[in-house]
Amino acid sequence: MDITIRPAKLGGSLSAIPSKSHVHRLLICAALSNEETRVLCPASSRDIDATVRCLEALGARITYDGGSFSVLPGGPPSDEGVLDCGESGSTYRFLFPVAGALGIEAVFRLHGRLPLRPMDALFETLESRGIAITGKGSASVRSKGRLQSGVFTIPGDISSQFISGLLFALPLLEGDSEIRITGKVESGKYIDITLEALKDFGIRADRIENRIFVPGGQRYHSPGQVQGEGDWSNAAFWLCGAMTSGKPVTITGLSPDSPQGDKAICSILRQMGAEIQWEKDALTITPGELHGVDVDVTDIPDLVPALAAAACAAEGITKILGAGRLRIKESDRLESVTRVLRTLGANITEGEDFLIIKGGRPLAGGCVDSWGDHRIAMMAAITAPLCTGSVKITGVEAVNKSYPGFFEDLQVLRQET
Predict the structure, then answer these.
(1) Domain edges within the chain
(2) Which of 22, 44, 224, 301 is the 20 to 30 Å CA partner of 231?
(3) pTM beyond 0.90, yes or no
(4) With 80 as the cut, is the pLDDT of residue 66 above it?
(5) pLDDT reported for residue 75
(6) Which CATH class is domain 2-17+230-416?
């Protein structure tokens, strides 16, 4: 599907959608719990639907009424479980260890670029503790065996999702376990989100620097009802859209105390010259005289497309550094960000793990593709206010992965000139 966005500024107020990162975790904890849990979530997405589908394959019963998920734990399937992960890396990496902890022979069905995303480090540590894995690197990966407690050594610089997956699984084992993280931990805030979700369900996991001790024989206990947090990752597009439009934007439903690492967007945009104001749960961002900055995105890679759009509006040079992991997302995001913004008229240079953007001037507009990547489609849309001509985006259905209502919300904020 295609959409054409005519020149218009963005301004006004929106409510943040639920964080899919947080909701993934709450749903998994609820499915492993002792009784029914209601997960408040006013909007779903294709990735969240993938986690629901896979948890049902593992025995849970889940219904959604448009405002919340009702999650009723059930027994494991009597035969082989087929888990269709769609293109959701979180679903795949979180539930692979869980299936092993439950002793379920499972087949993970993968779509899009998901089979290409790195898994070897997780597979190696699972195989060392009793899991047999076949079909690696294909669109159908099979797991067999029951996970054994013990020491799980995992690198921290590939994906924090490996660590979160182990954290969900290890409390279910009979014996105690320890996760030993080697090297630098990237996207470490996502581990904090997992630990917080586990705590909400009565699970103990003790972290001291790069070691996490997880007692065995634990049970997940439902708190009855839990609330999905507002999503900083997707709210960042509207905050950066204020930069490209030069008008204030207010987003409600966000928490300044959230463990989500992408709340760093506030400090970055403040460094660029924006004014940030909080009133209860409402965040208002007002653009000022914007200037380029250097940003290390090692721990916040999902912010890069939104930041790249904002950088086009900032006078001078913005350097986005530590972005190498973006090459293994839904698209090669360093390449897709570069090609889309360059087509629209931006001055952008791509390196092996960095982007350099010289901003501060209007862009022309043009026709660009989403690359099948939700964040690229959203980036192109919020760059449109900088353009003198229309922006046509092909493949906009990609936003369904995380934000199906994105273009409806875009229309709410559009201020026709």
Answers:
(1) 2-17+230-416, 20-227
(2) 224
(3) yes
(4) yes
(5) 72
(6) alpha beta
